[in-house]
From TrEMBL:
Gene3D superfamilies: CoaB-like, Flavin prenyltransferase-like. Residues 1-183 are annotated as: Phosphopantothenoylcysteine decarboxylase. Residues 184-408 are annotated as: Phosphopantothenate--cysteine ligase. Residues 179-397 form the DNA/pantothenate metabolism flavoprotein C-terminal domain. This is Coenzyme A biosynthesis bifunctional protein CoaBC. The gene is coaBC. Binds 1 FMN per subunit. InterPro entries: CoaB-like_sf, CoaBC, DNA/pantothenate-metab_flavo_C, Flavin_trans-like, Flavoprotein. Residues 2-173 form the Flavoprotein domain. Its cofactor is FMN; Mg(2+).
Length: 408
């Protein structure tokens, strides 16, 4: 739990800050909202108080006995200003302290994040550019505004990013550094097995879960290397990014980057088979209306292979996590198949999820069971792919410290 000051300056995007407040509260943080005096024209005090569960005022002359203009900033682990108008950034860069929020910004020594929102002309004005540069020089994290529809008919850079995006971008400041000093190699996405210069055999993996794992591991303080195979979503900032396409390329990349890492998370959906031959030119339709027969050969099982090689090569990751995409049937449940796979692969942890054309692949949410080779009780989690990723990272952190499975 972090103690957060959520400063809100007077822009129409203040309504998005209400949603950010919700996300922060749902994640278990204590939030003191400090609006500037004109915010009431957009969102009333009652909304901020009800959703934060704390008294809210813009004035330094209320609850004076608490010396709030200094105290809230001193107590805070993190100060956010969302939205940040051109005016509040100008005041903060000049060190003006004429209300509760600007006073707090001067008094705090906690990290400060500002998410600007204003019309494009104001964002691009030399005065604002200078103020942003000054704030950044002093260590304030000023989030780039999004580009898009603004308050009137105009559109351009100056739009407040969506609350979920802001929430995701400050995860490193909200999380406990449970993986500090740990190096983690993660594979994400789905491989493509070439047939000819234009065609491939692929799978439905979007890479969302792998990217969320990389984000959660980085937020937990780990040094992250992400091997990306055909992601449909942008990779997170702050990770060492490697690209691979086919299963064979992925295998090469894993064996190149795994030595020296503490943890390997094999999240990529790796094709089990590839075309036996890759045609040099595009496979053409034939006049006799016949269709080509494609012969497939087995791909190496990268996870099983690296676990096996570990027996002879000391510098390979001591903690390896597999993912199992399973479907249940009348022979066994998803969990039965998961347990059998964990034994077969020989890794330390297996994250099992049920797949189907509408489950897991390409979806925003996921439901998982984490199985441990040491026999610890399985841990379940469900929610957004980032929620699930955080649980996996927590479990890895506990397991490498020797306490697998004792948190939920
Ligand atoms: N995996 C791998 N190499 C492969 C296939 C899978 O390293 N050729 C890894 C995946 O990254 C994942 C785990 O093995 O961590 C399980 O993948 P899954 O597709 O569920 O299992 P398979 O071994 O392919 O078994 P099956 O498809 O028969 O259930």
């Amino acid at each position: 739990m972090k103690r957060i000051v959520l400063g809100v300056s007077a822009g129409i995007a203040a309504y998005k800050s209400v949603l950010l407040l919700r996300l922060l509260r749902e994640a278990g943080h204590h939030v003191d909202v400090i609006p500037t005096s004109n915010v009431e024209n957009f969102v009333g005090i009652a909304t901020w108080e009800a959703l934060s569960g704390n008294p809210v005022t813009a004035s330094v002359f209320e609850a004076v006995e608490n010396v709030n203009h200094v105290r809230l900033g001193q107590l805070a682990d993190l100060v956010l200003v969302v939205p940040a108008t051109a005016d509040i950034m100008a005041k903060a860069s000049a060190g003006i302290a004429d209300d509760l929020l600007t006073g707090t910004l001067l008094a705090t020594r906690a990290p400060v994040v500002m998410a600007p929102a204003m019309h494009t002309e104001m964002w691009q004005h030399a005065a604002t550019r200078n103020n942003v540069a000054t704030l950044r020089e002093r260590g304030v994290r000023v989030i780039e505004p999004a580009s898009g529809r603004l308050t009137g008919k105009d559109s351009g850079p100056g739009r407040l990013p969506e609350p979920e995006e802001i929430f995701a971008s400050i995860q490193d400041l909200l999380s406990e550094p449970i993986l500090a000093g740990t190096s983690v190699l993660i594979t994400a996405g789905g491989t493509r097995e070439p047939l000819d210069p234009v065609r491939f055999l692929g799978n439905r993996s979007s890479g969302r879960q792998g990217v969320a794992l990389a984000e959660a591991a980085r937020a937990a303080g780990a040094e992250v290397t992400l091997i990306a195979t055909h992601l449909e979503v942008p990779p997170p900032h702050g990770v060492n990014l490697i690209h691979a396409s086919s299963a064979l390329e992925l295998r090469e990349a894993v064996f190149e980057h795994a030595p020296g890492k503490d943890v390997l998370i094999m999240n990529a959906a790796v094709a089990d088979f590839r075309p036996a031959t890759i045609e040099n030119s595009k496979i053409k339709k034939r006049d006799d209306h016949s269709a080509p027969v494609i012969e497939l050969v087995r791909n190496p099982d990268i996870l099983a292979e690296i676990v096996q090689e570990r027996g002879t090569k000391a510098q390979l990751p001591p903690f390896i996590v597999g993912f199992a995409a399973e479907t249940g049937d009348d022979q066994g449940t998803v969990l039965d198949y998961g347990r059998a796979k964990l034994r077969r692969k020989g890794c330390e942890m297996l994250v099992v999820n049920e797949v189907g054309t509408t489950l897991t692949f390409g979806q925003e949410t996921n439901a998982i069971q984490v199985l441990f080779a040491d026999g610890s009780e399985a841990v379940q989690a469900a929610g957004s792919k980032l929620d699930v990723a955080r649980v996996v990272i927590e479990q890895i952190s506990h397991a490498i410290k020797g306490h697998a499975g004792d948190i939920s």
